[in-house]
Amino acid sequence: MLSPRIRRLKLDHESLKQRFAEWPVIRIVGTAGMPPEIYRFQYSLKGLYVAADGSILERNEHVLEVNLTLGYPRRAPQCRMLTPVFHPNFDDASVCIGDFWAASESLDDLIIRIGRMIAYQEYNTKSPLNGLAAKWAAQNTQLLPVDAQPVAPPLSEDVPTATPITTASPEPATTAPRVAISDSPSDQSDPWAGKIVIS
To answer: Torsion over CA of 133, 122, 30 and 81, rounded to 10 degrees?
Structure first.
């Protein structure tokens, strides 16, 4: 009989393959283990990095490594970028996901959320891993997001999904930086669209 962890790993693998099949923004480019415990994902979207001369430049391809340790899913996956990224919630060794990881969260949603972070569609300047990036983001909100394209693939009409909770009247649009956690996503093709965090 399969252990709960192995069942979860198999379910994650099937969900990832199904959700990102034929989706150009996020691709699985490597795995290790059977079922996989280590993944490499390639993101094709704009993000930022710091060049050798200190200038902040755009980058269109990013590679993320995700390690599902023995404590997974109770413990968050270990995530680190294999390509340089300039973002308040990333450093050379890790991606800050502890604030929103829960064992009930699906791995594919986490991968989408990290993509949204790379594109500066989500960021948190209150508890940064990279203080310089947090300061830069706070001073340059008019430049963000770096890439506004949907990170999540469109929801398949063949797959039943939960009905989202909607509010009676949507909030009016505002240009001031704020924390926005919406019950009704503004873009139905991207379930994270209503959960942008701008501090």
So the answer is: 10
Dihedral (CA of 60, 90, 117, 101) sign = positive
Q: How far apart are CA 147 and CA 25, in angstroms?
A: 12
CA angle 182, 46, 76 (to 5 degrees): 55
Can you tell me the mean pLDDT for 129-143?
A: 95
Amino acid type, 112:
I
Give whole-number Cα distances, 91 to 59, 113, 134, 156, 161, in Å.
Answer: 16, 16, 12, 34, 35
Is-contact 106 95, C-beta < 8 A? no
Q: In CATH, what class is 4-143? A: alpha beta
What is the structure's pLDDT at 119?
Answer: 98
Using CA atoms, how far apart are residues 70 and 35, in angstroms rounded to an integer?
A: 13
Q: Rounded to the nearest 10 degrees, what angle do helices 4-20 and 107-118 cross at?
A: 50
3-state secondary structure of 25: coil
With cut-offs at 50, 70 and 90, classify the pLDDT of residue 155.
Answer: confident
Q: List, for residues 24-50, the tens digit of each pLDDT value.
A: 999 999 999 999 999 999 999 999 999
Instruction: Please tell me the distance from the alpha carbon of residue 72 to that of residue 178, in angstroms, as a whole number.
Output: 32
5: part of which helix (H) or strand (E)?
A: helix 4-20
For the chain, the first-to-last Cα distance in angstroms comes to 47
Q: 88-103: per-residue pLDDT in tens?
A: 999 988 999 877 788 8
